[in-house]
Amino acid sequence: MTASNWKGMAWAGAVAMATMMAGCAAQPQAPQPPATGVPNPGPQGGRGTPEGCQADKLGDNALIGKTEADAAKLLEGCAWRFGNREGQHMPGTMDYNPQRRTIDVMGGKVTAVRRG
Are 78 and 99 in contact (CB under 8 A)? Predict the structure, then answer.
């Protein structure tokens, strides 16, 4: 290779890099929501409350067949999350928490409840 070939390749590489960086810089950034500092973010990932919840007074099977809204009311203050909602698998962690319920919902009704 000659020196002019190297210069040409370096120039082409610099142009390609500048083009890629310009494309990345032109993408709009989504605004970040303000941090609220809410201690219990809700059903997904909530740790529960010391007072417990109404569902603790019932067996887990009592939630099966209830509407999603009724189950959410009973689970207020509990640690719970969706496992499968209307056929879509929801993300979850692999840590074991015996107080947490994972519920499956199909057709707007609870079809399964698992602990852990």
Answer: yes
Tokens encoding 2: 């000659």
Cβ-Cβ contacts under 8 Å for 104 (sequence gap 6 or more): 82, 83, 84, 85, 110, 111, 112, 113
For 74-97, the pLDDT digits (tens) are 888 888 899 999 999 988 888 888
What is the Cα–Cα distance from 8 to 4, expressed in whole angstroms? Answer: 6
- What does the alpha-carbon distance between residue 111 and residue 13 come to, in Å, rounded to a whole number? 57
Complete domains list, the chain, with CATH: 54-115 (3.30.10.10)
Give the tens place of pLDDT for each residue, 62-73: 999 999 989 988
Q: Contact, 71 vs 113, CB < 8 A?
A: no
